[in-house]
Amino acid sequence: MGIERIVASSERDFVDKSVDYIEECIAKHQGRSASNFVLGLSASNGRMRRARQADVWSTLAGRMGVDWSRVFVFLVDERYGCSSQEESNSYLIRDTLVKNLHRRASGFPEHQLILPDTSITPASACAEDYERRLCKMFEEESGPHLVTFGLGGDGHIASVFPEWYQSVPERWAEAIQKKRTVLVTETSKFEVRTRLCVNLRVIREAVNIFVTLQEGSEEAWTRVKRSFDEERFGERRHAKRAKVVEPTGVFLSTDGFLMVQAKGRKPKPAPKPPDSPLHWVLRYSTISTMQLAVDKENHYAFVVLGAAGDLAKKKTFPSLFQLHMGRLLPGNMHIIGVDNPQFHKDVTNVTDFWDQRLREHLEKQKGWVNEDLESFKERLHYVQVQLDQPDTVVALDRHLRSLAEDRPKEHRVFYLALPPFLFAKAVENLRERCWSQSGWNRVIVEKPFGKNGTQAAELTDSLKKYLDEKEIFRMDHYLAKTLVLNLLTLRFANRELGHLFHCHHVANVRITFKEAIGVEGRAGYFDGYGIIRDIMQNHLMQVLTLVAMEAPATLEAEDVRDEKVKVLKQIRPIAPRDCVIGQYEGYQLDPDIQAINRKRGYPSRSPTFAVAVMYLDNERWSGVPFIMKAGKGLEVHQTIVRIQFKKAPPNSLFGEQPQNELVIRIQPNEAIYYKILAKMPGLTQQARDVEQTVLDLDLKKRFELRRTPEAYEKLIHDVIQGESHNFVRKDELEQAWRIFDPLLTTLEEEEKRVPETYSLGSRGPLKADMLIDRMGFRRYTVTGVPGFAEDDFD
Asked: Residue ranges of the Glucose-6-phosphate dehydrogenase C-terminal domain (predicted)?
């Protein structure tokens, strides 16, 4: 019996080593004994740690070295009175370990899973029921053999909280009594306050104890090791209480013997509650501790310039918070908000920044608990910087160096949540006064990347003075949408499907973006750009390249981006006759637009809707129209790619039938479905009685996704990893403007075209549908397939 320390180098390593240890304990027991193995599992608090626990249990279920028909599993602790069943530890273990065991037909019997029945009320009755079933199992199976738990920052073990037993000293006697029991404990630290847990006697009787330390520091390990040494080898372990008899009198018995009368025994006082139950638990058993190592080599800083602005508080920081909860940020990364005090006088320090800007938006995220918020807040710093005062930039550099604590390598990400006209000034100051000399530096710039090709080139040139192309990450969040990321896989991992992407089979391709809302709140910004610049030239063009590109030589970032650029070079500039623009009724009534109109002297001609048709001059797509449509104030909110295949020849076997379609729904409710023909069911139906139906790949249903990451999360994570697949390269930007610049010049300067008006909540202008019809696209009546009738129009 002893203690060992296991240190993991990464989150993945943490999961693998935890599972290795549990599997080894079970396999050793099963190799030398015919008896069953009893495994006690404890879940953690907070989304980060529960997600780690879920990974451990899911991975454990896949290990082949365990005979699960000979394993009993019980919960060391449970949350009682959860607002949702999914918050319970029972659900967590069923949704990860048990579900995956059943999926691979491991032979794990349901009756060998012992869980509290939290439907029993009150909590004390639930505890009695669980205690009865557990003790029966322990007696029959001679367990437990392994118990896992996390050691909390306050020293609690599972759900035995110091605050619970210290408030009423008699409770400590309950926690350590010789009888195996189930306790009802309380805590104010976490969102679910009432807990059920086995007493410390059950934990200490385990042959092996596996302790997860929440800190990776040397100090955390030293505290546990010191506790272990004191219990196993220290003075208190060998100290014996002297037995003293206090005489009350001496007398002679009737037999002539000298007798001593002693006092009556005093009842033992209740044991004094310790600061932590750790000493008591570590007295017996083989102890193993697991820690995530502290990286002493590298430090990471994520610096957000413009941190007090709208974009940062609504998108950037919520995405960083989600990455934090998902354990996807480096453990020693600090997040530094930076802004100009002249524009945000209410934010002067990190407390103001948290209270005035972040808390409201972070609390809107799902799945967090107070522990998650507090741990994220510990990463945060706030520094006031004025780009026209170099000393403040130097002060930022000093602050970053102090956070690095003399680690050999400093890596810095600079996220420019700034207006584009400040990009060059910001990069110049950062490069000269706040650049890491010992690690990598990366700069994220947000769209718009200029208003036309000339401005885009000027912006690119200004950045190139100070940055290499590999240091620039131009963010277009559409590239990180789940279904956009899936386009390469759909086409090139499914070879037979990829062959359909050809002019021999495809009649037309439609890429449609719709928003049901108007431009309220950002009309002043939007009017200067319009829907073509705001959506088509960047978001939808990126989608088009992934639909139309050839297979890259490899999946390396530069090979993928090379193929995207080839597609862009083959697209003709858009002919003005192949474009219809619109503007929804009421746009001109927006106060911001009215102010712009008064200054300009005429009504705004900025389009809120557009349809444009493009052609690719290559063998694969020769003659196929790519119809791009984007609009605000329309009837639904969705983004869809629709590949419509050619009709069967006249007088074909099944007569006049709808065209088949492959539909990729990017948002909302990501899905891929293939609209094909099938025979209608029924006794009276003939062979020619066919109808359009759907082959459906719903990602959320098929892959049981608990949560689909937001696009900003994916992109920020990619930057930290140095992955540039999903960012726009300089030549991509140039080619996209080459396609759209002539059209925009014609519409805005030569024709000065007035957009067609359309009603809010409609499909857009009638002329747009006429143009689409002219390109050969046909709409078909929805067949009533559940789940698609309401969103099958674009």
From this structure: 488-776
